[in-house]
Amino acid sequence: MSAEPMRLLLVEDDVCEAIKFTEAAKRRTDIAFVGMTDSSEDGMDLVKSRLPEGVILDLQLIKGSGSGIKFLEDLSEAELTLRPFVVVTTSNQSEAVCRLAEALGADFFFSKTQQGYNEDFVIDTLLSLRRVFNAKQKKQADKPVQSDLRKSAELVESPDDRQRRIYSRIDTELDLIGLRAKLKGRLYLRDAIYIQIHSKKHRGSGIEEVAAKYSYTYASIIKTMQTAINDAWDHGDIDEIMVHFTARVAARSGVPYVSDFVHYYADKIGNSI
Fold first, then answer.
1. How far apart are CA 42 and CA 197, in angstroms?
2. Is the N or the C terminus of the chain less surrounded, counting Cβ atoms within 10 Å?
3. Segment 151-200, tens digit of pLDDT
4. CA of residue 250 relative to chain centroid, distance
5. What is the three-class DSSP state of 209?
6. What are the b/e assignments for 69-93, b being 16+ CB within 10 Å?
7. Against a cut of 0.85, is the pTM above it?
């Protein structure tokens, strides 16, 4: 099991239920709630901004707004780097509703009236889902090493697959600090980190190559990248950002310089792939 607490989101309109999950989080060290809401729309915003690993979703949200079904529909259509596990909780006994939730991607379904139902049971289910998923991922990763066929072409990662995997990891890291995809600076930073990971040249060579790739001056590329970084720091939760970005920042502005930003993620990702 991962040593890191599992990041959870609660979408629930019953205040008493929400308090129970809050109390559970206080007495446990294996979870951390990154958000709680009684709105399916706000829930989707939190999924995109906070990137929870798991969602505890009430289907009806009678006292809130929207519905769990609407949340699941939006989640299935969202372009997410990381899709959270979803455990549905409801007092609705309809088998049709249960089947619909499952069809929309819910990973587990709880009736709030079933025997033994409590907040710890729900949380433990999400932790089990993560544990099983991580075990499968590890098994897949270890499989080529354990096999005499590991040198077979079928088991060798292609350059295109490796590129997609690394870019996906970069996107995940940038999502975690709220670097918005619509900003050009994010595209340039993404490419610079990827290039720097593979570069055998000096620090900052990724930025130089990005400037050449897009036919801009080095100064112009730096300015656009810095604007994207500043945007994340200006609009994001600084405490949340600093959980994921642990490198130094400029003392005067409180924001990392572009070269430090690129170098940090090139090292962080390059050392783990």
1. 36
2. C
3. 444 445 678 778 888 888 898 889 889 999 899 999 999 999 999 988 76
4. 26
5. helix
6. bbbbbbbeeeeebeebbbbbbbebe
7. no
